[in-house]
Design a protein that fits this description.
Elements lengths: L22 H5 L1 H8 L3 E8 L2 E7 L9 E2 L3 H15 L24 H4 L3 H5 L14 H5 L4 H8 L13 H15 L3 H10 L17 H4 L22 E2 L1 H12 L3 E2 L2 E2 L3 H7 L12 E5 L2 E8 L3 E6 L4 E7 L8 H9 L6
Antiparallel strand pairs: 1-2, 1-10, 3-4, 5-6, 7-8, 8-9, 9-10
């Protein structure tokens, strides 16, 4: 699709009708958010590259950053693709242990030796913990998060079975650093954030590694582990507008204002539907004639891309336990506002 305007410096804001959306239905979102989604801090709806709806609450504004939790994972996915495009990494089927030559695997670690970057990207590597009961508290108490995770990798389960792991994505962040010589934060600033107009993420010292520093009120910039690796599975702070920029890049198959940022092939692979409904660190949906892929973070943070409607929805939220599903809001209140 040809674009006449790119939000590299400023977002264009248009009346919904000019991009084929119903203004009354969008304005009705105010009531729905207030009554059913009071934990939303900011929401941006983009169609055809322009903002058609934007709302902030609880004292936040367009440029305020929010900890987007596991949305971070989808950023890591993009960075792996960029690193492959640039030749820092050979391909997605490169073995994970290739990047950690100092690590000595167990003598019986046949399965561990077979694990590739693709397994980490698709959450199909084995770990010893029960499904959805990953002990992240133990990870955060380690002096070496990478070796701790490598020690778990390949134990229990079978290679190829879906098992969600945040620590596994932290290994991908370390792979980026091992292959490029830069932290994921620094690599993203140079090769992803700056080229598409996202705010660069400054480097902050970690005063401690308690809950608030890693997950809570003291999260700033992009959290890092004791060795300086940017956290792979969480810890990034973004504004809703920058979340929307990232989603818009994916809608455009990795090209921004005629400049390639990520290969279209990588984005196609990352978002191709499969039986797990999970791509390369993106959640996938195909229901009732609507196909979408989303970067989803705990607490209700989401970047939802709906290619057929040329639509991006970015939502930043306060952390709440078991927040109301954002897909319900998108599917029932935003997508129906598209009238062409």
């Amino acid at each position: 699709m040809n674009r006449s305007c790119w939000p590299t410096t400023l977002w264009q804001t248009l009346a919904p009708a000019t991009v084929g959306m119903d203004a009354d239905k969008l304005s009705g979102l105010d009531t729905w958010i207030k009554s059913d989604y009071p934990d939303i801090h900011g929401i941006v709806v983009v169609r055809h590259g322009a903002i058609v709806y934007e709302k902030y609450d609880h004292g936040y504004g367009p440029e305020d950053r929010h900890h987007v939790a596991s949305v971070t994972k989808s950023i890591i996915s993009a960075l792996i693709g960029i690193a492959i495009d640039a030749g820092y990494i050979q391909h997605a089927d490169q073995k994970v242990l290739d990047f950690f030559p100092e690590y000595e695997p167990r003598a019986d670690a046949r399965q561990q030796r077979e694990i590739t970057l693709r397994h980490l990207l698709t959450m199909t590597a084995p770990y010893p913990f029960e499904d959805w009961h990953e002990p992240l508290d133990k990870l955060c108490m380690q002096s070496n998060w990478v070796h701790y995770t490598l020690n778990m990798l390949g134990i229990g389960g079978s290679l190829g079975a879906f098992k969600y792991s945040t620590a596994g994505v932290h290994l991908l962040s370390a792979v980026i650093t091992r292959s490029t010589g830069k932290s994921a934060r620094a690599f993203a600033n140079e090769h992803l954030f700056k080229p598409i107009g996202m705010n660069e993420i400054p480097d902050y010292d970690m005063n401690s590694f308690g809950f608030d520093d890693l997950f809570g009120k003291d999260v700033r910039g992009w959290v890092k582990d004791p060795a300086g690796n940017s956290t792979g599975g969480w810890g990034l702070t973004l504004s809703p507008r920058d979340m929307a920029r990232f989603g818009f890049l994916y809608l455009n198959r990795g090209t921004w204002d005629n400049q390639p940022i990520i290969s279209g092939a990588w984005i196609d692979q990352s978002t191709a539907m499969n039986s797990n409904h999970y791509g390369y660190l993106w959640w996938l949906r195909d229901e009732d004639g609507v196909s979408a892929y989303s970067a989803v973070g705990d607490g209700g943070n989401i970047i939802c891309c709906i290619p057929k409607q040329d639509l991006v929805v970015a939502i930043a939220s306060a952390f709440t336990v078991n927040p109301r599903d954002r897909w319900t809001l998108i599917k029932e209140r935003i997508i129906p506002a598209v009238i062409d």
